[in-house]
Design brief:
mainly alpha; 79 residues
């Protein structure tokens, strides 16, 4: 497979897709959530502060795909 660097690194994209699919199908997300939970009040406070700081830099919630893109897929050609 020809490797194109930059926006079109097909080999890396394929590897990522395989690994992401394997993870999504086989991961115990409940266990991972328990492992990621804060261990004490100090860690919980640090996590909340990090989230607050991240949200300050955010442009807001992701609105999802633009409506015109969604409607293009749904429209059928008139025959």
């Amino acid at each position: 497979m020809k490797r194109i660097q930059g926006e079109g690194d097909y080999e890396s994209a394929a590897v990522y897709q395989r690994k992401a699919t394997r993870f999504a199908r086989g991961a115990d997300t409940e266990e991972l959530a328990r492992e990621a939970a804060p261990r004490d009040a100090g860690e919980a406070q640090a996590m909340e502060e990090a989230e607050r700081r991240g949200r300050e830099r955010s442009k807001g919630e992701d609105p999802g795909p633009p409506k015109e893109r969604n409607t293009l897929r749904l429209k059928k050609k008139k025959t």
